[in-house]
Amino acid sequence: MFIALLLTSTRTCVSTRMSCLHEAEVHVCIVILSKMEKGKKTLGEKLKGSEVRGRVNGHHQENDMENLSLFEIIKLGKSATQSVVDDWIESYKTDRDPALLELINFFIHCSGCKGVCVSEMFRHMQNSEIIRKMTEEFDEDSGDYPLAMAGPVWKKFKLSLCEFIAVLVRQCQYSIIYDEYMMDTVISLLTGLSDSQVRAFRHTSTLAAMKLMTALVNVALNLSINLDNTQRQYETERNKSIGKRANERLELLLQKRKELQENQDEIENMMNAIFKGVFIHRYRDVIAEIRVVCIEEIGMWMKMYSEAFLNDSYLKYVGWTMYDKQGEVRLKCLTALQGLYYSRELNARLELFTSRFKDRIVSMTLDKEYDVAVQAVKLLTLALQSNDEVLTAEDCESVYHLVYSAHRPVAVAAGEFLYKKLFSHHGPEDEGRPRRGRQCLNANLIRTTVLFFLESELHEHGAYLVDSLWDCASELLKDWESMISLLLDEPYPGEEALTDAQEAALIEIMLCAVRQTCECHPPIGRGPGKRVLTAKEKKTQLDDRTKITETFAVALPLLLAKYSVDPEKVTNLLQFPQYFDLEIYTTGRLEKHLDALLRQVRDVVEKHTEKDVLEACSMTFHALCNEDFTIYNRVDIVRSQILDEQVDKFHRLLEDILQEGEEPDEDDAYQVLSTLKRITAFHNAHDLTKWDLFTSNYKLLNSGLQNGDMPEQIVAHALQCTHYVILWHLAKVSEGSASKDDMVLLRRQVRAFCMMCQRYLNSISTVVKEQAFTILCDALLIFSYQIVASGREALEPLVFSPDASLQSELLNFILDHVFVDQDEDSSTDDEADKIEALHRRRNLLAAFCKLIIYNVVDMKTGADIFKQYMRYYNDYGDIIKETMSKARQIDKIQCAKTLILSLQQLFNEMLSDLGCNFDRSASAFCGIKELARRFSLTFGLDQVKTREAIAMLHKDGIEFAFKEPSPQGEGGPPLNLAFLDILSEFSSKLLRQDKKTVHLYLERFMTFQMALQRDDCWLPLISYRNSLQVGADDDTLSVISGMSSRSSARSRRSKQPAASKRKLPEGTCALNHNYESSCSSSDVSMWVNREQSGPHTPVMMSSPHIVSTVLRDTKKLCPEQGYMGVYSMSNETQHTPLQQPSQVAWMMAQKQQQERASLQYGKMRGHIQHTIRRGSGLMEDDEEPIVEDVMMSSEERLDDLNEGMDFETMDIDLPPSKNRRERSELKPDYFDPASIMDDSVLNVSMF
């Protein structure tokens, strides 16, 4: 009865298979019937022609929405996708050709094409012809199309497009997709579009095809489930006895199974067409976004329908694509695999894939793209959970070391891997362990952490290890009781006690965990730094800090008593009070433990003389001496007692030494040194001005200068202590409460101390000299004009500026002690000592460079620093470059004069070494020229900002070139004429009108005979004049870059300028011209006649961070990055102020000389490039950055791990895509692994 009613009410829904309707088909028909009965309009009234009228929330749209295309409806997003699909299905059932035409235009418009496929084209043209027609109508002026456009509208459109395809297949899965018309047409269209040369067509159609495939996979999965259920029902019914068996039901189930099998075959054919027609060719598309779409969807297929897709035939595509050069593609491969490895059920099918591509996944943990590296570590963690033996010990170790990575997400992922591997396995013997004490489970895990920390030979940074484990093992790292128990409690019988190294490592880990708990931010160098904590995080922080104080207030004195003789352990233990909540000492009645702590700290001060230990004691008293808490008086008394004892002892020992007048013996020297170390360490954090240490230290330093028998360590600490005395005195004066006498006293002390440091620069001890130099530079910087900034004009009497002799002495110290080669520094052969020595030299250079950029010393003293830029680029290049940048911010013109001065100094040094008849192909000259090129690059691209500076640079260079007369007598070239060849490197930075002005200034120094010279010795003048021509190409100025071809040089012909006469005054080359018309907005008098300016007004600047100890990678010169020919003339007319009757002959001779120059420098090119490029530390980063490899450099990510490994990204060399004709030759069996398994794809055997 029900079926009969259904047949009469839904005639349009009946098909030839109605006799065996599936339950879901009946449900759909009922829904359609109810809609037809409730609607006020019939289907024919709702649809006019082929136009689809959408509905919003079940209601028909207004008239302005009726004429919108399907693309516009989806783009607006105002209609529910379900309603849009239902309306399209109704129109398709009414007249399928117009509805299908609307769907075709929808995909075309989604690609950004404005063309329309009309019904005539649809009926009479093939897909390839339609696509060709649409390609002709595509707007190629703009590269934007909907999927590539930015903004929320287009982002939502992409989601709506994907949803539309999914809903369309879901709504059509019971009838329409099997009509052998709609799906065939759509698949054929999308396959054709995916082969288009137009990126928009290819990208959009690939996305649509992949989403269509995903929807079909879902349909196939449902069919498979229904088929299994039907088969099971059939078997159950057939196994019944004959009397209970229902034959009619068996026939229905048999018929249903047959129909489901037919449907499944059709779906498989559709998926086969899409996979072989689209995916096989587009997963290796040249566009990364298209490859990403393919890999993302195949991951979905394998996860949704693992029975059909999770096999090696499909996994191999993901494995191959892991070698992709684009990080986003590699990232999508890893995320797709994570969805598979996450399920333990699917893991068993990944064994072959894991064994084949495991090495690649492990290598991707060092990927240059940090996101890829993070996901690679997470993937290995998932693989580890399923099978603990899937990774070898070497594989695990390569991930372990990443916990010390500077990139926090990578380190956190590696920390989780480490925790899963080492800490998450609990055996049956762990069940009965106590919850506290040495034998608890956490104590065993803490032991494991300590062992791992000690075995990490590459790193010694406990803070990084703790931060990496913090997210997954914070509860373990906060188990202070277990840690303290391991340190203080005696081991149980049969238990192995901690070794000395293990105890030190445990104390360091415990300190790092306490710091991480209280500060709530990653260690320095990892992460953005401090952040604003939420209310919950603040409460947790306070609770943890209270627990830390209560626990360690009792345990810390005991730990100090046990390890009081071990400097390393004591240094770490003394840092705990910095994180205490001092109020707990009072509220928790822990005063006796505070007294015990103070006694232990005092005992440590008396026992130790190590700098780190004493500074830790000083910082402990600084943390406890807080006037806001009631314990201040108790702590201050102990601190005063310690300082009184040490200062009195120092004065007594010093008096004995000075009265004897002889060299102090070892015992006396040791006593003085140990006492001075304690005083200096405490003076760093505490004000000791009331003890008048300046007088005592000054006497000690003066005695050392007079007698020369004072030990170097005593002098070094005396200098440091005196420096602290002056700084604390300055802090007191800066508060405004000091008297005039205090100001006068401080002024005298500063000048006397600076003179003392200056005298110690000539000490025979390297330690003393370096200490004196560093302190002197800091003092000069502190008491420079900067001291009066921010409203501190009252401190102006304290300003101390170094005189010329002191500046010269400081500069000579830098030249003698910093710019030395590693080979010359033969004081040590140990590599670590050499690195430490380099670090000290860098600090010395940075201290002096700060004086330059803050105008404490004359900027021209920087010339001797700048000229070392190329020679010592590997060691000091970053410091020198930053100094040049800051100097240019202070005074552009003076900085330019300093740069040209450095080049002039190098040129004079070369002349003194090689003589005046040197070869311009010599390495020394080429090096100067290359340095000039690098200086030119530092001026940037904004020629307007550097206009005056560049002009002044050329002015000084021209004057230097003609400064000295010719050593050959009258008629010969000036001694420094070759310097013009170096100066030409800066011609490209001149504005067009300024080139004319510089050329006119050059002619002031030229005689008429000079313009007629064509010998090789005059080539620098000729090339420099050519570089100043208005029409010259700015990129053809470098002599060493390469030469213009002879043929092009010969083919150029300059027009003969009109000859006119002018009178040349005697001894000069007069400039009789109209400057306003030739130089436009330039004024030659602005810089040609510019006098040396007076003292430059200092500019207040914030202190820069320039003392970086990280050495950059050496970069090789790229041939394409710079060198071009130089002596080529412009095609434009070459104008010259020399307008004598012989000018025509001069121009012809100039052309001939240009050809000779090309031949000459063509021979020089090979030697020049070898000389310039043989140093690997040249500053090529001033130009374009060199494209780095996909994998991280060894310096950035664990040098030792990269040894012996090849992390180069594999270039996939795949055969070209098959065209549409060749696709008919593909194997038809879609689900046969052999049909997909094609070894020719990579030309290697995969499994």
Automatic annotation (TrEMBL):
Principal cellular location given in the protein's record: nucleus
The membrane spanning regions, by residue number, are none
Instruction: Give GO BP annotations, semicolon-separated.
Output: cell division; chromosome segregation; sister chromatid cohesion
What positions belong to coiled-coil segments?
A: 220-273
Q: Which residues form the signal peptide?
A: 1-15
Instruction: Name the segments for region: Disordered.
Output: 1042-1067
Q: Which UniProt keywords apply?
A: Cell cycle, Cell division, Chromosome, Chromosome partition, Coiled coil, Nucleus, Signal
The subcellular localization recorded is:
Nucleus; Chromosome; Chromosome, Centromere
Quote the cellular component terms of the Gene Ontology held in the record: chromatin; chromosome, centromeric region; cohesin complex; nucleus
What does this protein do, in the record's words? Answer: Component of cohesin complex, a complex required for the cohesion of sister chromatids after DNA replication. The cohesin complex apparently forms a large proteinaceous ring within which sister chromatids can be trapped. At anaphase, the complex is cleaved and dissociates from chromatin, allowing sister chromatids to segregate.
A Gene Ontology molecular function term of the record:
chromatin binding
Organism (species): Cyprinus carpio (Common carp)
Question: Matching PANTHER family, A to Z?
Answer: COHESIN SUBUNIT SA-2, STROMAL ANTIGEN
This protein is called Cohesin subunit SA
Q: Name one Pfam family in it.
A: STAG
Q: What does the similarity note say?
A: Belongs to the SCC3 family.
- Tell me which residues make up the SCD domain: 279-364
Q: Which PROSITE patterns match?
A: SCD
| Binding partners and assembly | Part of the cohesin complex which is composed of a heterodimer between a SMC1 protein (SMC1A or SMC1B) and SMC3, which are attached via their hinge domain, and RAD21 which link them at their heads, and one STAG protein.
Matching InterPro entries: ARM-type_fold, Cohesin_Scc3/SA, HEAT_SCC3-SA, SCD, STAG
